[in-house]
Design goal:
The chain has one domain (2-135). It is 31% helix and 32% strand. The protein has three helices and seven strands. The chain has helices at 8-32, 80-86, 120-135; strands at residues 33-41, 45-52, 55-61, 74-79, 93-99, 102-107, 112-118. It has a seven-stranded antiparallel beta sheet with strand order 4-1-2-3-7-6-5. The model is unreliable at 84-89 (pLDDT under 50).
Length: 155
């Protein structure tokens, strides 16, 4: 079994599989519980991650006070029903661009931008890459041609 993990491909394949499983866990969790992580950047900006309804969002805001961004890094969670009840109060978001489940939202005030990526678009490529790296046969190293000089005996 120890021979299986020799080489960078197998090690990278296992690391990629672990990341794919972590994102899959986040995907399933996002259907029941919505998570938000926010952190201030400087005095008046903040950035963070949102996980809700099978999608991952990355946001940047230029007005911490208007959006209740904490003054230090913080993690918040709420149940799906609570999140849906709170979201309409945050109206004013419009799509800058949108393609199926991918998109970018901007607040009408211009203070917040959110990029939305569905979890499946992260999990699927990582799983395929992991399978490829773990299942391909390792290359057999070809023996190098060694040229030896033979000297005559007694010379």
């Amino acid at each position: 079994m120890g021979d299986f993990f020799h080489g960078w491909r197998r090690k990278t394949g296992v690391a990629t599989l672990v990341l794919a499983l972590a994102f899959t866990g986040g995907w399933f969790r996002s259907d029941l519980i919505h998570d938000a992580f926010g952190s201030p950047i400087g005095k008046s900006r903040a950035a963070g991650l949102l996980s809700a309804a099978g999608q991952l969002g990355v946001y940047v805001t230029t007005d911490n006070d208007a959006y209740n961004i904490p003054k230090q890094p913080a993690w918040k969670t709420c149940k799906r029903e609570t999140f849906r009840a709170l979201f309409p109060a945050r109206s004013g978001f419009i799509w800058s661009w949108h393609y199926h489940e991918f998109g970018m939202l901007r607040h009408s005030s211009g203070n917040v931008s959110v990029v939305i990526i569905p979890y499946w678009s992260i999990v699927l490529p990582m799983s395929l890459l992991s399978a490829y790296l773990l299942l391909i046969k390792p290359r057999s190293s070809s023996p190098k041609n060694v040229v030896e000089t033979v000297t005559a005996a007694g010379a």
